[in-house]
# Entry
Amino acid sequence: MQRKIVTCMAVLVLLGGCSMRMGQFTVASSQNVRNLHYSNTQAVHTEGKSCLNQFLGIPIGSMNGHMQIAMDRAIENGRSKGGKGDILVNSRIDTSYFTLIIWGQQCTTVSGDLVEMQSR
# Structure
């Protein structure tokens, strides 16, 4: 009887799910954008990261906006390196996850070249 209860609980844990907002962006594209004018001479490569800790699979803290937080941190890090940009080009978004039985962490990392838009 105890084995059936443990099995049922394990199945329920595996079937559990959730949803979360990854971020909200002013402009985003996975395609080449025509007529996008920016200065490449002062481009600064930068990276930002946002992590969510978990205890026994339960998130600690807010699950919303981690991609947006990572993007904002990347832009802030680029500006702290002397960049004067306002957009990331050639950007990459990675998500990593690890768990140590009772403790886990999910991280979103955004990297790219911080550049400044040029008006025409």
Remarks:
- The longest strand covers residues 38-55.
- Helices lie at 2-15, 66-80.
- Residues 38-120 form a domain with the Translation Initiation Factor IF3 fold (CATH 3.30.110).
- The mean pLDDT is 82.
